[in-house]
Structures are given as C-alpha cells and as structure tokens.
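Could someone model adenosine-5'-triphosphate with this protein?
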Amino acid sequence: MEKVVNCEVITPEGLVYSGEVNMVVVPGEVGEIGILPLHAPLVALLTVGVLRVKIGDKWEYVAVHGGYVEVKEDKVIVLADAAEIASKIDVERARAAKERAEKMMKEAREGEENFFEAQDDLKRALTRLRVAGRAG
Ligand code: ATP
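Reply:
Sure, complex below.
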C-alpha cells in the first residue's frame, strides 16, 4: 500500500480537517511547503493562504488563516487561527468581506494602520473565495 501522512487542521473552534493523504502542501510564510511521507521533522509559520491535500489523484482545498505547521513521524498538524474546508465556506459572506475591505483600503491612506488591517481582511476574503471556487 502507498505510504500516507495523517493531516489534521485544528483551530480554536475545533478540528476542521482530518485525513490520511498522500501529500500536503501548506502556505508557509516564505512560500509553499510540500510534505510527502517520510518528511523530516519540521515546524514552520504559515501565512493566510490555501492548504491542499492530495488523495490518490484528487486534490482537496482548505483556507487557512495564519498559525503554524508541525511535521513529525508522518503526522502533519496545522494549528491555525481560523480555517475552513471548501464546502463550509459562505461565499456571500466572503464577497461582502472582500467589498468591505476594498472600500476601507480606498478610504484609508496607504501606510495607515487601517489600510494594513483592510489588506489582511482582503487577503482572508480572497483566500476563502479561491477555496470556495474549487468546492464540489
Ligand atoms: P467576516 O468579516 O466575514 O467576519 P473575517 O475574516 O473577519 O470575516 P475571521 O475573524 O477570520 O473572519 O473568522 C471568524 C470566524 O468566522 C472563524 O471561525 C472563521 O472560520 C469563520 N468565517 C469567516 N468568514 C467565513 C466564511 N466566508 N465562510 C465560513 N466561515 C467563515
């Protein structure tokens, strides 16, 4: 049987994803990190972005919003501030968040604190929309 890694995505609200997968790709702070079975132990910071897992020849997508990943003995644990699997994403809510953030960015001056805040809000909303677009 093909070797697998056990992947868990955990947030303060609970377990968002758990599965035996062939590969995990996480959005690391300095770029994507691909994790295959027998990967060396690792701890890395994550950015807001798309986590994907490969099962056979199929990919599944999870929006993750910050946090970190730990890899140990074919177990990948992602601890994130928030995370959503594609089918749980409320597209209308993400669209509304995107519009609010874009408006706030237009109204704020570049370099102001609320500009950066809006930039972060926009990144989360766009990540959710990207993941939701791949749902089903
Ligand atoms: P909003 O402005 O719509 O609340 P947000 O980016 O401020 O979005 P977060 O603070 O990142 O939201 O998340 C708060 C909680 O709501 C988390 O549990 C997160 O998983 C969930 N959440 C946020 N947006 C969505 C969405 N579009 N679909 C499903 N769950 C969402």
